[in-house]
Amino acid sequence: MNSLKRRAALEALNWIEDGMTVGLGSGSTAEIFLHGLRHKNIQGVASSKKTEVLARSLGIPLVETNDIDVAVDGTDAVDDSLTLIKGGGGSLVREKLVAYHADVYIVIGTKEKWKKTLHDETVPVEVLPFLHEGTEELLLSAGGHCTLRLDTKKNPFVSDNGNFIYDCTDIGEVIDFHEKVVRLPGVVNTGVFLNLADIVLIGEDTGVRTER
Ligand code: 5RP
């Protein structure tokens, strides 16, 4: 599995040129990509605190700007319309911002991430802690079966933005669900990334498949 992640991550490095501002994704696949950036003369925009720590340890200079040339990130699921579901690591809101502001958004993953349909996938939703149980009721009435994400100590998982995450299943059509819930009071955003991915690089046994 790691070798397939590595294949996709190394392929993404071909898009990176010296002097670029690069959006740095989060998660294990994005971390492999980050290691490859050590040899490039670029500056990065980190999509999570964990990525920020890794980038600093690798000597990658960091900036906070929305002027991003290329962003590279992993995904939890992707279909043939290049809709993504992200947020397994809890960094969905910053990841979406970085993706939105990148001139080119490249997604890297392994063949397991490629889905015929996103229908049965779990969609993370980041919500404000304030009155979050009320927000949970609203999510339920939007058709989701949503569970508060817990950390290893069984406390609510807290995102880099100080928010909670609900993982929603049985939601049917993910885009409809996203559109219904994204405007609910208390909801910050969802892990559905619509019309954002420009290029998807899938690590397979025989090489890297490119979808665009
Ligand atoms: C974090 C994410 C990650 O990109 C996603 O979970 C994929 O992670 P991995 O590369 O470890 O499978 O969205 O919020």
Automatic annotation (TrEMBL):
InterPro entries attached to this UniProt entry: NagB/RpiA_transferase-like, Ribose5P_isomerase_type_A
Keyword Nucleotide-binding carried by entry: no
Swiss-Prot/TrEMBL keywords: Isomerase
Source domain of life: Bacteria
CDD domains noted in UniProt: RPI_A (cd01398)
GO molecular-function terms, A-Z: isomerase activity
Gene3D superfamilies cross-referenced by the UniProt entry: 3.30.70.260, 3.40.50.1360
The enzyme's E.C. designation: 5.3.1.6
Matching NCBIfam families: PRK00702.1 (NF001924), rpiA (TIGR00021)
PANTHER family listed in its UniProt record: RIBOSE-5-PHOSPHATE ISOMERASE (PTHR11934:SF0)
Protein name per UniProt: Ribose 5-phosphate isomerase A
Species of the source: Salimicrobium album
